[in-house]
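Why show two proteins at once? Because comparison is the fastest way to build intuition. When a single record is shown, students tend to memorize it. When two are placed side by side, the eye starts asking what differs. So, the first record is below.
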Amino acid sequence: MQRTTSRAAALLAVGALGLSACATGGGETTEGSSSGSGSSSSAAEAYQPKEGGAGGDVGVFTWWAAGSEKKGLDALVAEYKKQYPNDTFVNLAVAGGAGSNAKAKLASDLKNDQPPGSFQGHAGAELTDYIAAGQIEPVNDVVDALGGDEVFPKDLLDRLSVEGSIYSVPSNIHRANVVWANPQVLKKAGINETPKDMKAWIADMEKVKKSGVENPLSIGGTWTQVQLFETVLLSDLGADGYSGLFDGTTKWDSDEVKTAVSDFKTLLSYANTASDGDDWPPATDAVVDGKAAYNVMGDWAVAQFDDRGAKEGEDYTYFPVPGTDGVFDFLADSFTLPRGTENPDGTKDWLMTVGSADGQKAFNLAKGSIPARTDVAMDDFPAYQQSAMEDFTSDTIVSSIAHGAAVPLAWSTDISTAVAKFSSSKDEATLVKELSAAAEKNA
């Protein structure tokens, strides 16, 4: 493991930046994928689960503890029980937006050699910490049993791999750069067109404010603000400039970043005041309730809207963050095999369900995301998810900062700390300085 750890962060970071548009909704193979069976880099034989499952408890650690996220997990668990009735699912979910509380608890458990059966992690650079610490095992055999790169985009598997070893099974794909808007609030403000860039969007916010809405933009705690900030960076820098922030080709103290920081500050001036612990559902609810015109949130918001009984086109609409049309800000949830877990075969049963076509259909229909598999039919999904499937095949793909795809946990933590301070200070120069220092420290 020591030889791998020296290169893990670099290799996964390259994979995170290099993901190309590669998924489809209808079973097509992806460009550049192997036409053979199994994962292209695996030397292990495919996993052969026992009929009915290995038996025993399988504790699964997530941050899907409530609301629409829990409904997604419940749908996946129901499929797991159907596929492997001999296994017993143990829910180890810890509440906390974007997993901040869960990750702290998980780090403590892993450090104390008390790993769960499996734990949720974001695909991409976030996994490097666990790989470098020797805390998760390769799962090539499971991925092969699921169909390898015949059913998963090869570039996605590369993102989960170090030196040919695949370290988690993806359950879905989410998009982070989505604006959710209330069409009635926009109509009242005289807004009839989607803004094309950040400046135009800010101008529309002023119109909304003048129409009587105190806070045109709704936000939650720090991680939601980091997600908002990354989309402003993406808008003002473009896809290549944004991705260059993580490989050093774009400097964090460049004029373009300074412009993005200024635009971010302006956006916050139109937003409600939020504390660090405020979660995301109230921010999306503010749009449906007409208390805000806009919210930037990942497409897990769809499940929240469905939970509220909101109707697309009447209660909410959506579009890419202005200036990011044609770019897909990517993140994905995936599940791991922790080293030293008590029931590894039971964990592999869980991973088989996570990666199965039926499991992905049930889970993603409930959660608002799209399947990581390419052989789940588009027609089974509602309009937004079909549009996301189509966009993922054609858009330029970049990696989310807030959700672990672009940078490892330590770097993400430093960015979050800087953004949290900025939320109260609004000191642009200090934010640029701290972002530059975080890059120098962690890159």
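Second record. Ask yourself what differs from the first in the token line.
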Amino acid sequence: MRTHLGPDASPSAHAPTPPAVAPPPHWTFPVPATGTRLANGMDVAWYRLPGQHVVAATLVLDLPLSREPRHLEGVATLTARTLDEGTQHHPGEEYGERLEEVGAALGVHIGLGGQQVMLDVPVTRFAEALPLLAEAVRRPLLDRADVDRHRALRLAEIEQLEANSAQSANRWLRSRLWDAGSRASRMNGGEPETVAAVTAADVAAWHATQVRPAGSTLLLAGDLPEDPLPLVEELFGDWGGAAPGEPLPPPVPAGPGVLLVDRPGAVQADIRLAGPGVDRRHPRWADLLVATNAVGGSFLSRLNRVLREERGWTYGVHLGLSPYRDGGSWAVSGSFRTEVVGATLTETRALLDLGAAPLTEEETTAAVQQLGGTLPLRSATAEGVVDQVASHLLAGLPADHADRLLADLRQVTATSATEAYAELVDLSRSTLVVVGDAAVLEPALAGAGFEVTDRR
């Protein structure tokens, strides 16, 4: 029934009192219900998550890309991408059909520090799906035709990347930010000349010598009705292999410089301004995380507010951190109209310097609330939990890293964030990569104080 209020009536007189907003409940990262190490060196951790009816299983392999032979870089990626093309028990398309029958999805992720093989499946079909994960990892066919196809796909992928200005800028930044001897200076999936050299025999040899249980961890999360460890032991207990190889060496910075990549006639330029940074084990990581979020890590950060909202020079600009197991980097990235690149770089450099304009308590509080609020959200599903734990494992972080980080974030102040930023974001060591119309951009860069040291 709709009630009409006359012109003299006051709706506030009958409006209910709004409920009080309670503070968010105390949150801690899930603790595994059980965990063990098999005799072959593989760790297992099971997170019992009531209500999560899709089980996430991820096998984290201690397989840094620095172990690839230099002339065969990309072999790890081709191996991983061929795992689901058929196994000894389910050859060819039969393997994919079996995954579909049980409602499972298999995926892989290749990072600089290691590899993940991921499985999602309804809890009711978990016992049927986990053997398929074990098959893909332990007994893949790695057929020559499949390897050849994935090699061709990877080469085509690289061509597409080169055609994309933003992706090309990211690739050139890696090659200029890190010393050529560091694996971090080259694409995770390999460069064209090394990918082209990989054969099916190389893939088989890589799998036989590098994909091993020692140093690996199987993560399981979901509302499983009973302890899955007996099934895990049955599927992986007799998996053998040598001990892990050498750990991933930290990347070595190449030193500052300015690279201009020519795209004649381009109406916009992709800018990457970056420098060496720290990893998540650094004692001031929380302070740095808050500072970079306030400067350029959120929509209302200084960089985006000025360059996008006030100037209208870009659809968006971002300052982010890329931590590795040891060391890392910071980078400003964005696409800008060609005619404003010089002014953009001048203003960006000023905004990145907190000497004249330290962070305010308001900015710091907003950043802490955003970062602290997203931690629980990222762990709200079974997949989110295993993703977080896998990331921590590959970074050499403790199991309670999320809880420690949340506690550290609550201690950050405007002063501590500004000091950490000033200490760890060194503009004098920065590398600039600009992809666009060189004829127009080179004078603009010089006018902004950036002398080009390399051209492509």
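One difference worth noting in the second protein: The two ends are 72 Å apart (CA to CA).
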